[in-house]
Write a structure and sequence with these properties.
Layout: E1 3-4, E2 23-28, H1 34-42, E3 59-65, H2 68-77, E4 81-83, E5 85-91, H3 107-114, E6 118-124, H4 137-169, H5 174-188, H6 200-206, E7 217-222, H7 231-242, E8 247-251, H8 253-260, H9 264-273, H10 281-291, E9 294-300, E10 304-311, H11 316-323, H12 325-329, E11 331-338, H13 339-345, H14 348-353, E12 358-360, E13 370-376
Parallel strand pairs: 2-5, 2-6, 4-10, 6-7, 7-8
Antiparallel strand pairs: 1-13, 3-5, 9-10, 11-12, 11-13
Helix pairs in contact: 1-8, 2-13, 4-5, 5-6
The protein binds guanosine-5'-triphosphate and magnesium ion (MG).
Length: 378
Amino acid sequence: MLVFFDMRELTLPGGSSLRPVERIGIVGLPNAGKSALFNALTGGSVAVAPHRFSTTETNVGIAQVPDHRLTALAAMSQSKKTVHTSVELMDVAGLTAGSSAGEGLGNRFLAGIRESDALCLVLRAFEDPNVVGDSDPVEDLAVLELELVLADADVVDTNVNRRRRAAKGDKSLAGEVAALEEAQVVLQAGQPIYRSSLSVGARAALKPFSLLTDKPVLAVVNLGEDQAADAATLIKPVVDELGDSADVLGVSVQLEAEAARLDADEREELMEALGLGEGALPRVARAAYHLLGRRTFLTTGDKESRAWTYRAGARAPECAGVIHSDLQRGFIRAEIIHWDELLELGSWSAAKAAGRLRVEGKEYEVVDGDVLEIRFNV
Ligand SMILES: Nc1nc2c(ncn2[C@@H]2O[C@H](COP(=O)(O)OP(=O)(O)OP(=O)(O)O)[C@@H](O)[C@H]2O)c(=O)[nH]1
Ligand SMILES: [Mg+2]
């Protein structure tokens, strides 16, 4: 039986093919504004306070990932419902010079970071005499990276000797030992793995050791309310420092957190008046999502427009499986059009009539922003 499954007609529960929940850890010195950023992104209400180490336990929350492509398609289809994707965040205890050796909250911050799959480094630029701490984001970065590197060097030093001994009896461990030795050289030079030129293969071999700097990284410079308009200039020293190894975003966390509490209209008015557009928070959510290797495809119809998450590099059947396992099992082909083309044509039926829907098979690698309809047979 051939079934034509029209996603515009049906709303299915989101069967996600993402394996264990992946999270991005928010890492930084005490009072950098980690918890404030966490709250602003997740709508949470964890403690934010001007004294150091106000966060002692890890907080977990979910941030919506606003997507203007989805909003535009939902308007085009006059969808009754719009479902955005999301990303999981962790607010971790503050880290300080000496943390890797147990200073401050030592192991608490380590445990929190180890559990995360990517890191968002919060660097403080805002000045506030009531909030203890310095306002030099490049200095923050240096302190943070040193602690992460020291913690990793410890793990690598311990394991390299053990694995060398084990490799004598088991030749298959040679690759792992070589990767540990390469990592040791990088770390001993004070460099985080994410800044190094370690090969993809070596980094894969290091996975079992859960090194803190073997994770993808994003940096958020927390700007003062009065600095928000000069973001590009203020983040430049951090951009120069990190080069290609991480994206850097400037956010006035407090300002945007306050704006986030307003009604949509009031918020838009305030952000426009300040010349901040949609603000930087949505960009942080999108960057975090991207950093975890997540990509988005879309479905649209009058019942619902929805953004779905898939793994970078996934093919059409796997993406069909994100919507429902039946769609993957019985996958025949997909009708696909990129979101902006569809928007320009004005509707799915117009795209079809114009012959602009591409028919793709099992080998098609879905592109971020593709709009899909799946034909399947179970
Ligand atoms: N002026 C100003 N203050 C901020 C900004 N962001 C955070 N703060 C203040 O800085 C203080 C520390 O913020 P938190 O979010 O608690 O900092 P944290 O990084 O979570 O700190 P710990 O949990 O102690 O490691 C609070 O009093 C915040 O209100 C900002 O952009 N501007
Ligand atoms: Mg905190």
